[in-house]
Amino acid sequence: MADFQVWLVHWYAHAAPPIAAFMRSKWGWPFAESVHFLGLSMLVGCVGVFDLRLLGVGKRIPITALHKLIPWGLLGFAINVSTGSMFLLTEPDQYFYNPSFQFKVLFIMIAGLNALLFYVTSWGRVNADGTINAPRAGKVAAVISLSMWISVIVCGRLLTFYRPGPCPKEGPGFIADCTPRSSR
Amino acid sequence: MQQLIHFTGWIESTAFSDWVRGAPTVFAFPAILSCHTIGMGLAAGINAAIAFRILGVAPNVPIAEMKRFLPIMWFGFWLNFVSGIVLLIAYPTKALTNPDFYLKLLLIAGGVWLVGIIRDRIETFPKRLAWASILCWGGAITSGRLLAYTYRHLMAGL
């Protein structure tokens, strides 16, 4: 895994020099950060409101009708994958070796898998006309979704606190949470 | 200005300010910053969801029912009010000597004011107010984010 991370860092470092140059310009990084936070709010707002409905807030709202907000949450997610990639393309070693980033990616994947499972297992029943109470599986999905996105936010904010330092002499473990010598 | 920095310097010298700023634990500054971001997502995000509905997204949602989500939006707002004050105690000079910080407060005040008006008039689909609220909260997020890049003095002595 550590070798793969080193490869990722190298690949990202050379993948898009113009983007890295933009990010290193005076307002590049602050601009991307601001947009990343706007996307975050769109994602958490639209997906979160839908999750809350599954949990029973606003029961007079047909679940299917409220689901029309989800594409806007997905747009927020797309904005954040784009701006997030801009950070990765500029300072890849600050992310791929950062345990907080590794957990962030894990939580995003769990959130995605959870959404997929929701559509496979409960969407048919939730989508039935006149459903007021979401099935138990839908509520579980909503709780997982809310906790994952909140965890993603927390991991994002903890990135600077867990900045990776250089690896000790014996090198990184299975997953590198420090900058390997071969990477410097 | 001198008096302001004298005052903010005194805040920075308190044990609490020092702890928030410098305690080598994730439960000090990083945790409070995390709370501030969660509250931001809830407040600005739920406001955006309600505004999107007013602007025509999800037309089959009974519009007045969107008010049911307001308590969670207010939870996010108060979480940020409290965590924001703690962050201000940690770095008072940094915030209070930066005009951008006052812009952020102004935009938040505008956003809060609009929530009340939109709530009372929601049945009339106040589209302009919905746009204005998106601009206020989006502007508050942007000006807040830029605080990290536009400050003139980090601390009183610096």
Describe this structure in words.
The complex is a heterodimer of chains A (184) and B (158). By secondary structure, chain A is mainly alpha-helical. Chain A has one domain. In chain A, 71% of the residues lie in helices and 0% in strands. Chain A is built from nine helices and no strands. In chain A, helix 2 (17-24) crosses helix 3 (28-54) and helix 3 (28-54) packs antiparallel against helix 9 (136-158). Chain B has one domain. The radius of gyration of chain B is 18 Å and the shape is elongated. With 158 residues, chain B is an all-alpha fold. At the A-B interface, helix 3, helix 4 and helix 9 of A face helix 3 and helix 7 of B.
Shape of chain A: elongated
Report the portion of residues of chain B in β strands.
under 5%
- The amount of helix of chain A comes to over 70%
Major sheet characteristics of chain A: none
How many E strands of chain B? 0
State the helix count of chain A.
9
Low-confidence stretches of chain A: none
Largest sheet geometry of chain B: none
> Alpha-carbon distance between the termini of chain B?
14 Å
Give the distance, in angstroms, between the N- and C-terminal Cα atoms of chain A: 17 Å
Please indicate the count of domains of chain A: 1
List the keywords:
heterodimer, A: 184 residues, mainly alpha, 0% strand, B: 158 residues, 7 helices, elongated
Secondary structure topology:
The complex is a heterodimer of chains A (184) and B (158).
Chain A: H1 2-15, H2 17-24, H3 28-54, H4 63-66, H5 70-90, H6 92-96, H7 99-121, H8 123-127, H9 136-158
Chain B: H1 2-13, H2 15-22, H3 29-54, H4 70-90, H5 92-96, H6 99-121, H7 127-150
